Amino acid sequence: MLEYCLNCNYEKALELKIEPVTITVRGEAIETIDEFYQCPVCEEKFTTNLEYDSLEKAYREYRSRHNLVQPNEIRDWREHYGLTRTEFSRLLEWEEATLNRIEQGALQEVPEDQWLKFIMVPQNLLYLIISKPETLSAEKREQLISQLSANRIVVETLQRFYNILRENFSEFSKPRISRTKQA
Prior knowledge:
This protein is about 50% helix and about 15% strand. It is an alpha+beta fold. It folds into two domains: about 15-55; about 70-165, no CATH class. Helix 3 packs across helix 4 (about 95-105) and helix 6 crosses helix 8.
């Protein structure tokens, strides 16, 4: 590859190097490789144009080891249901920037991952859409309810869930008045 070394003004082919590297992610050592170009004169290192990112690889491995949702799985799932980042962020009750960072490869915390896994279950998504009507436009809400309701198991499970809620927790929906004695 012909490049220009900004360090020593060398104007010939830089060498592609591939070396093993250990990256510590949340206290855990992860072995991966690092790809870079190196100037044969001054030995300055430059990142490759091959879009290889050793930190991204280490994060992916860490997520695999700890059973965390991968960024592409989140993005693919969201797109499958036709949700924009804004809409999905509202359902998650997150800032859109948080979802964007995670979809772009930032490492999520365990509670964030648990919430993502919860909402990615169709029954739970349907429940959130129904229980938070203000988070989506009427058109999008109807489309998603129709899409999710096409699955009979989801509808039956949700109906059982609503019945249990109504039977066992109806008193919680009534406003409570607190009375305290005044001295």
